[in-house]
Amino acid sequence: MRKKNQQNFNHGIWLMCGAMFALPLLDCFAKILGENEMSSGQIVLFRFSFQALILLPILFWKNQLSITFKHFWLQLIRAVAMATATFCFFVAVRYMPLADSIAIFFVEPMILTILSLLFLGEVVRLRRITAIVIGFVGAIIVIRPQFSDVGLIALFPLITAASFATYMLITRYFSEKISPVQMQFQMGLIITPIMLFFVLLFPNIDGFQMTAPNSYEWQILIALGLVATGGHLLLVFAVSKVPANLLAPFQYVEIIGATFLGFFVFGDIPTIYTSIGITLIVLSGLYLWHREHQLQKNSEGTYI
């Protein structure tokens, strides 16, 4: 049993690292489309409709295509949380450097800890509270100069973090009940009509306008759909093998990819404020992971 757990742990790490290298590429494509004046709502609509279309033949092939309304409201909350996270983040990266947006987003482990306290009844002691406060201070350091440049949009990665923490909490609940492919297909199936409703009903509101993509934009949209589907499948598979709290340190691989792409694609160089903020956020996140790891070791007598 221990050997199997170790294999699952190793597989989960590799899957998580793969997801964290893929997702900055998704954000890079979204930023390119945003700079081409495509609305974030339209990008989100295409992103999740492509996800449903890509996964449909896979489910047919595996004979797993079935729609269940069991836990529908929980699935709806999960889908809305993901749609909100994606929309807000696409708005943020349109106006902000990739590394800054993702750095602010990485208060998500702190928010996940708070949600675990509120909904799972976990005990959060002084040292963990201190780590959460330090993480938020790091986010404020990154947000402050961005706030003067882009205003309230600088807060959008925080909304993304809160929404994504909710998504991860529910994903963990479903990971042993629904297959990862089925889970992602159903999410695409729920989000697509929701976003279609918004872009059709509010075509004149900034963020929901619809435009006809040119051939170059179609290529980027298709690439975005493929990367998004693949990256989030890797993430869900990783969480199905290893508890999300043990995978938390490997989420920070995403900052490396975002910094690299931001520099080589958009010429973004992290400022000293961004570097200090990222350091505080990563250190606080790693400490929270360390405490979770220690608690699990003490309760189970093993790291796995």
Describe the overall structure.
This protein has helices at residues 2-35, 40-61, 72-95, 98-105, 108-120, 126-150, 156-174, 180-201, 215-241, 244-247, 253-266, 272-300. The protein has 304 residues and is mostly helical. Helix 2 packs across helix 9 and helix 4 runs antiparallel to helix 6 (126-150). The radius of gyration is 19 Å and the shape is globular. The model has no long low-confidence stretch (mean pLDDT 80).
State mean pLDDT (0 to 100 scale).
80
Approximately how much helix is present in the residues? over 70%
Q: Structural class, from helix and strand content? A: mainly alpha
Number of strands: 0
CA-atom Rg in angstroms: 19 Å
Helix-strand string:
HHHHHHHHHHHH
Distance between the termini: 11 Å
pLDDT below 50 for ≥5 consecutive residues: which ranges? none
Categorize the overall geometry.
globular
Largest sheet data: none
Strand content bin? under 5%
Tally of contiguous helical segments: 12
Task: Please tag this protein with its features.
globular; mainly alpha; 12 helices; 304 residues; 0% strand; single chain
